[in-house]
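Run Flp pilus assembly protein TadD, contains TPR repeats through structure prediction, thanks.
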Amino acid sequence: MRHPFLTPLCILGAVILSACEQNTDAEVRRAIEDVNVIDESNLNDLMLTVADPNEAVAYFSKTAQQHPERIDIRRGLAKSLVRAKKPREAAVVWKQVIDSPEGTNEDRVGHADALIRANEWQKAEAALNAIPPTHETFDRYRLEAMIADANKKWTKADSFYETAFGLTTRPAGILNNWGYSKLTRGDFPGAERLFSESLTYDSSNFTTKNNLVLARAAQRKYDLPIITMTQQEQAELLYTAALTAIKQGDVTIGKSLLEDAVETSPRHFEQATRALETLNATVTKG
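Sure, done. The structure for Flp pilus assembly protein TadD, contains TPR repeats is below.
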């Protein structure tokens, strides 16, 4: 016995099943695309942080050639070039980014940063001047302070450093830079204060420790500050203090500090030993 009413039901069922299959396929494709976007985003982040800088440059260069319309990839390339210590090339790429409709004020800050690293100070200053004053970020004021330093506009530099300090939760670096600015001006007490404050935020930074010893030694305070240091760091800091003492004419103190540096070092301290031998030879001839 035939059931003619079943035919349209079967056809309807087939249509519904087909539609369901199509929807499922579309959903799968979208899911895969979403996963690819997530994976690419994660890969981009990795390339910008932990990857070897030259590998990151190669990755972003290749991707930029494949997708020339992707400004985010060009941003990644510019940042990677900076990490790879190729600031001139980075500045060229940043210019392409800021000239695009998608260029932002933050991109202009990146461009200025690359120009400073490339020793293009006037161009960097012009790039910063093109950014509206309403764009107030740590990086912008950090660069403004550096420009003011280069122009020996100390009041402006101090103002920019102070503003940058207030815009970051990790101020050790900006305090060190500010301290170095004070050091170059001859404001040794001010430099000492800033280096000491920087070390309260990052006690492991040897550059800041060395700068602190320089600032103190410039005031003829040759004893090492009470800070966290390894035995090797202590030897190197004594060496820094010794050289400063000798340059300032305090030869006897410098010689004693060199001897302490050699004795303190857990391994043969070639630089201090050579300096001590030179000093002894000079004194003997004299």
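The longest helix spans residues 6-49.
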